[in-house]
EAL domain-containing protein (Deinococcus caeni), 756 residues
Amino acid sequence: MSRVGRRWWWNGPDGPGQSLRLQVLMLLGLLALPTLVVMLVVIPALMDRRFRQIEREQVQQYSQIAREDLETEERRVSLFTLNFSQWTSTFEFTAGRNPAFQTDAFGTSTFMGGGVDYGGITGPGGQLLTALRFEGDRVVPAQRTVRALLAQLPVPLPRDGVRGFVLVGSQAYLMAARSITRDDGSGRGGVMLFARLLTQPALSDLMHPSGTYSAQLTALPADGGTSLLFLPREVVGVTPLAAPSGSPQLGLQLTIPRAVHLAGQDALWQLRLVLLLVTVAASLAFMAFLNLRVLRVLTRYVADTQRVARDPTHRLEGSNRTELGVLARTINDLLDHLQGREDQLRERTLRDELTGAYSRAGLTELLRDDATVRSALLVEVPRLQELSGLYGTAFVDRLTRELADRLGSADREKVVGRISSNGLALITCAPAQIDPEQTLADLEAPFALREGEVTLKLVAGYSQSAYPVPFSALLRQASLALQHAIDQREHLGVFDETMLRRSQYGHTLETQLQGAAQRQELSLMYQPISDVDSGRWVAVEALLRWQHPLLGAVPPGTFIPVAERSGQIYQLGDWALQTALRETQAARALWPEAHVNVNVSPVQLLMPDYAERVLQTLTDLHVSPKLLTVEVTESTVMQDVELACRHLRLLREAGVRVALDDFGSGHSSLSLLTDLPLDTVKLDRSFLREGAPETARGALLRNTIRLARDLQLSTVAEGVEDEAMLALLRDLGCDYAQGYHISRPDHLEDLLAMRR
């Protein structure tokens, strides 16, 4: 019965089996269904995904631009805070010795010139000394807000200060804080704080003008992070802004209209409508139209899109008058817009914003394949940070611009670049030539100030070639010449092959020095220190030696600076200390009163935990602290007197002796003998070379020994080479002597065999 019913439906007078047209239409409908699904569902979904990707990249680019604007203001406020924090007048105010400071320094001009709304100062004990706000055209107290801002700071405050964005109440602030010191960076006088209130108008002023997006600040939850929200007509992206401490409190919210998405959606709906109408009207015509007018165009668009990925200048064919043409033109407009923004960002990368000169990347791109490059002059401004503190950031910016102008305008034969914050470059291309000495002299012409002139002493490196040299190689040569001038304290360094060999040798030493201790290439030699009166040896000084299998004996004066620059001095210093302690402890079996002196590198003494590391080494090796004397030089201590005194005081309290080495070799001050925690003063060998009793040097030697005795310090004379020198020291009352007349440096076991 059911079989008859089905046969009747198909073969009946109104069934499909009676009409070939109906069967064809049904077949075309079945064939068209997958196509319709693809055209109406799959392709729109792929295009929508592509639109979302483009919008996501657009949000990232706009967020980067907006963050750069905020970071520029953040750095400016931080530098403004730095200028006030490293000021002796501020330091004296926190110490209670400059009561007029607040009135003199915190006027309306300070807030207006610095572009800040709040300022505060705390004393060394954390008490609030100053809390002001700039309101209208006057400065008023603002203790409540300043206290709230100070509460956002980490404890303790880092030495380089902090900066960031905070939320106080319902208000957003950009703040920066630094520890207050004197002009030379010494002392700790409390905290200097400046902040800017980030209202919506203030935020708009900081941003580059843009009609494409709108920006505002929004509060973040405690675990807030970057988020991206696609709304029907706009995209909202939130990027967290770093706080001075803890988790970010504020986020930068960008709202961007989804013009491309909406245009694409309109085009897709129009496409769906056209496809639906054509399918209903005539399946066959629709299929032909779909193949000729849609699939072919979309295939071409796909190929064009893939080509755009390889060639950003390529564009989709937009002559089609249908919705597909609208879509192509819309995509082309978006690509043009993104290409324009990319060109702007690329221009900012290739050009220095302050001077308009090429950046290092710009020089590299411009001259990478230029065979006419002939010379490179690199000019560096020493102590630029000090000039900023003396005359202000605006003067330093003007100085940098004027130096770039003096180097000459960027043309085809002479190209000017700014390769660092305090470095400029002048690149010449054939046939142009320059005289580096004269160019440097022209650059050093006095710079005008409102109250006078400022004369700078620049340092430069120069390299030239009579034949084509790659720009990168020429720049490296000029950099070597500049570094040579800095190291040798010269005015101008001119590259030659000797510099290259010296640099290559230094690189070889740096490479070979790694693992030298493990390869047993390092050793210690010892030189005795004897009592002047009795001749009895009282201690030995450990001297580091390096015997390389190919390079031979490398002098300490050669490899120690390499180790300090490369950071390997920490491992070398630890090895030397541990070896000296072990060998001297073992020598006490034959020499019970043996002591050892170990030299300290400036890099080691600047380590925050140097004293703790030395004491831990003594504990690990089970060695008495009284066995060890550490030798420091005046130049080492003067790099950070406060830190050095703290280390030396900790060592002396534990029983380690402290000796001041090479006293009198430079601009030594007798006040060091009273200021530093010392046990021994080692007199430089120059005292004995020029120290005849009737000379001024001899008088200084005699007075230094007498002063050391009065201060209960022992004295050691270095460089004793004959009996006459030893007799002179005995007459002057010097305690101990060291030099070739006593003994040359030797292995400790050999010295023990001939010990007196």
The longest strand covers residues 537-548. The mean pLDDT is 82. Residues 20-85 form the longest helix (66 residues).
